[in-house]
Each structure stands twice: as structure tokens, then as C-alpha cells.
Amino acid sequence: MKYANLIFEVMKQVYRVSPRMFSRATVIYLAQAFLPVAQIYITAQVINAVTGVLTRGETPLSALYWLVLQLTVILLGIALSSFQKYTERKMNAYVSFWFNLQVSEKLSKLPFLFFESPESYDKLQRALRNLSICGINMVFYIFSIIQSVITLAGLLVLLFSFHYILPIVMLLLIIPLLVIQKKEGASRFIVIHQQTASSRMAVYMNQLLQTKEAAKEIRLFDAKDFLLSRWRGIYFKNTYEMLGVERKNMKNRLVVESAVTVFSFSILAVFIWLGSRVKLTIGSYVALYQAVQDTRYSIQNISQNMGQIYHDGLFIHELFEFLDTPVPQQSKELPMAGQLFQGIEVDRVSFRYPSQERNILDDLSIRIKPGEKVAIVGENGAGKSTLVKVMLGLYEPTSGEVRYNNIPIHDYDPTSFRSKVTAVFQDFYRYELTLGANITLQESETDDWKSERQLTHAIDKASMTSLVNSLRDGVSTQLGTRFLGGRELSQGQWQKVAIARAFYRDFEVIYLDEPTAAVDPLTESAIFENLMSMTEGKTAIFISHRLGSCRQADRILVLKDGRIVEEGRHEELIEQDAHYAEMFNKQAQWYR
Ligand SMILES: Nc1ncnc2c1ncn2[C@@H]1O[C@H](COP(=O)(O)OP(=O)(O)OP(=O)(O)O)[C@@H](O)[C@H]1O
């Protein structure tokens, strides 16, 4: 994106957020632009009038008139400046929200695979970092430049009235200032860009020390020093790199800005040296002095703002690049997923993670009939969870396809397909919200008896009725320890919450990835015994390492190295005396 386009795009987005605020800010900035020239002019008049009163005995009325006018302009400046600050804050709040919303919306549309690569995290980090500096500041820099240009135009006219060469010389001073500002912006950007991955690592190391999840192991295994030293190492490496650049920038800036200041003072010196030959009144000399200083200040301001636009533009470009990440396009007329009457078919599916060289699922085919209860078993890393994610449509197969009622799942309207499937993930998430919100993941609507009945039903299915009854605030109990009044649950209780979440929905197919890994044997047995009745008429696909729980499955699939190596009912597989039988017998011997 070219710079002009980028600036235009930013202005367009900010205007879209609030046209009224944008217009108000424009008026405030423009009004302020005229104040410095007015001030210089009035100051000259005040001095000339006061000189008249003091040296020539003139009436003080004129001096007082100019003084009151000056006071009015100063008060106007104060009022505009206060308005400007308030408007800037307000715009900042709205624009930050807007860009945050864009990023979140974009993230929710990106394929789930986006979260599986470090490059994606770098991209996201760059986009998110820009939210704090971007958009709105760029608009203020532009406003500020327009303001300074208007002020500068007035000052140049004023300087021209002293000598035609003055505005030309003063204008030329902007060139070296612009050059160093551009260099500064580019060098800072390059370092920050290069440090994205390592600064993510430093933040991660630091956050590990601040989270409850890692705290117990860090304490027990005395890992604090290890983490701190890693964090410190990266932090200071990055900081010294940045400081090196800043030092260089500082030297350049010091030389150029000093040269510009010395030059502008030389102009004033020349006028003093010329003395009475230029026939200036005291007021005019003060005006000249002020005009030279203000011109210098204006060109510095313009170059600084241009430098900032250049610098922020490099960052915002990354934000827009993220927002432009292509998302799979959907045609409007997608079929809606309905009741499962033809089954699910995994047809010659292979899948490879972007970071991996081998296929995790390898030319795998499965047919599942409606209402069938299928168990998937296999060793760690066999590909069971990956298969579930592919069947849920979270990952798109590298080759082959998954069909629901003979239609590829990615061809369905995504919302309608998602409403037909539900899941308990092995690594389910603990939302530090109320128990009810954890299950429904929706805003609770008062007097919605249907969702209330669904909630009670889901709680019952997850065998957590007694737990809910024991809580003083029932489903309104805040969970976790992060927020006031929160109640922490045990690992198994959290798992029950995840199970209730899955059962809260109306579904056709339920996927349970080790849903009882953390629950006690009685609950596990209750869940699996009830699984058949709980999912009556529905299709259930579950993964479990506790092979006893698979006995009731209509079919067991044994997964090894991304392929189905055995398939059948429990008794049949025991009879085959192969991989499943070996795993089952090994596990069973512990119970004998
Ligand atoms: N996000 C990922 N990126 C890259 N590789 C992955 C990712 N997730 C899993 N893998 C790899 O894919 C393989 C299969 O993992 P998967 O989680 O599907 O196995 P699983 O059979 O469910 O194992 P477990 O019984 O331990 O849960 C493993 O070798 C794992 O290293």
C-alpha cells in the first residue's frame, strides 16, 4: 500500500468511526492554526502602544485595547487546547475499540490452523501492537501538520514583510529535519520488527511468572531464576539493540536541530548587526524575533509529525496487512446442515500440520452410521485428537474430505454445521465467568425457560447437579480465583463443566476427547454408562485411554500412525489378539 493510500485509508476508517468527532477535531485544529500569527501581530501592537505611552505620553487606551485582545486570544487558545485534549481522548477510545473489533472479527474468521504457527503469532503481535499507536495518532499528526502549515504560511508572509529572502531560507531548513526524522522512523521500525519473535518470548517468560497455572511448578521446581534469567537476557538484548539505535538517532537529531537553531538565531543577529539601517521599531523587532522562533518551531513540528507518520505508517501497514489476510470466502447460498440421516464419512483423509513434515493422518477412511457410538483408541500421538478436529471442520484435510450426509462439511453454511456438532475437548477451556456462562457461553436472558431447562438438563447429564446445589449462588457462582467472589473448582469438576457445555447444545454428533480423564471412577462410570442413553438417537464419537469405557461402543477404531489398524466390537478385537487386545490386557492387569 502506498503511503498516500495508507494515510487516506486511515483517515477514512477514523472518519467512519465517528464523523462528528472527526469534524469537531478538524475545526479545533484549524482554529488553533491562526492563533500564533495573531499572537505575534498583537504582541507587536501592544509593545508599540506601550512604548508610545511610556516614551511619548500617548493615551493608554490603545495599549489597553491591544492587551485585552491579547488576553482574549490567549483564553481562546486555552479553551481550544482543552477541547482538543478531550476530543483526542474520546476519539482515541472509539478508534481503539474499532480497530480492536476489526482484529477480533478477523481472528474469528481465520482458519483454526492460524493458531498453529509461530509466524501467525508474530503477525498477530504486530497487528495488536499497532492498535495502541496506530490510526488515531496518525490522524492527529496529519491534523497537526495541516495546522502547522497554515501557521507557517502566516509566519512566512510576516517574514516576507521584513525581507523576501527570509521565508525561503527558513523553509529550506525543513529538508535536513525531514531527512533525520525519516531515518529515525525507519531504524526504529526495523529493530522492533526484527524483535517481534524474541520480545514475544520475553513476554511469555515474564508471564509464566505471573500466572497461577505455572506458579506451583515454578515454586516447587525452583524455576524462578531460570525463567528470570532467560527473560532478563532477551529483555536486555532487545533493549540494548533499541538503545543503540536511539543513541545514533539522538546524535543525528542533536546535530541537525542545533544547526537549525543556530542558523535561525544568526538571522536575528544579522538584523541586530544591521541596526538602524533596517529601521525597525521595538515592536517590529519583537515580532521578527517571535516569527523566526515560531517558524523554526513550526518546521520542526511539521518534520516531527511527518517522521511520526512515516514511522507509524510502517506499523499500520502491518495492521492493515493482518486485516487483509484472506479468509475463506463463502457463497451466500450454502446448504444448511440438518439431521444426520446418511452418516459421516471420512474419505481418504490425510492431514499434516504446517510445521511438520510427516502426515499425522494418512489416507484414512471411516464411515459412521447415524446413531452409532464409536470409540477411537490408540497410543499417545497416534492422531486421535487431530482426527476429531478434522471431523469437526476445525482443520481442513491436506487431501481427502469429511462428509456429513454425503456433503463435504466445508461446503455447509458454517454456523448451521457447527450447530449440529458438539464436543468436549481434551484441553477444554476454563472460562473465569459464572458457572452458567461457562456452560451456555451466551448472555443470560431472564425468564428464558427454554434455556434454563436446557441448562438444568446439561448439568444433570454432566453429573454435576449436587455440585451446583452445593454452591450458594448456584449457576450464578463466579468460577476461578481471578475475580472477586470466585469459587475454584477441582480439575474433575472443571471437566464436568466442559461436559455440560457440550450437552447444553442441541446436536446430532458429539465428539468426546478423553472427557473423563480427570473425573473420579464413579462419575466416569456414570458418564459412560449414561453416554448411551444421554446420546440416544445421536451419534457419539469418543476417545478414551481407559479402554474399559470403550466396551459399550458399537465399534472401536484403533488408530496407529495416522491409520486405522483395527476395527470392530470389543469382543471381536480381543479375539483378534492384536494391538487393541495387547493394550486392553496391559491395562486390565492393573485391576486384577
Ligand atoms: N498443533 C500442532 N502442530 C504440530 N504438530 C502437532 C500439533 N498438535 C499435535 N501435533 C502432532 O500430531 C501428532 C498427533 O497428535 P494428537 O494430539 O492428534 O495425538 P493423540 O492421538 O490425540 O494423542 P494423545 O493420546 O496424547 O492425546 C503428535 O505427534 C503431535 O506431536
From TrEMBL:
| Transmembrane is among the record's keywords | yes
Q: Where is the ABC transporter domain?
A: 344-586
Keyword list (alphabetical) reads: ATP-binding, Cell membrane, Membrane, Nucleotide-binding, Transmembrane, Transmembrane helix, Transport
GO MF entries: ABC-type transporter activity; ATP binding; ATP hydrolysis activity; ATPase-coupled lipid transmembrane transporter activity
Membrane topology, record value = Multi-pass membrane protein
Q: What is its main location?
A: membrane
Q: Where in the cell is it found?
A: Cell membrane
Q: Which Gene3D superfamilies match?
A: ABC transporter type 1, transmembrane domain, P-loop containing nucleotide triphosphate hydrolases
The reply on keyword Cell wall biogenesis/degradation is no
Pfam families in alphabetical order: ABC_tran (PF00005)
What parts of the sequence cross the membrane? Answer: 21-43, 63-83, 133-156, 162-180, 254-274
Its cellular-component GO annotations read: plasma membrane
Domain ABC transmembrane type-1 positions = 25-311
Family annotation (PANTHER family)? ATP-BINDING CASSETTE SUB-FAMILY B, HAEMOLYSIN SECRETION ATP-BINDING PROTEIN
The name this protein goes by in its record: ABC transporter
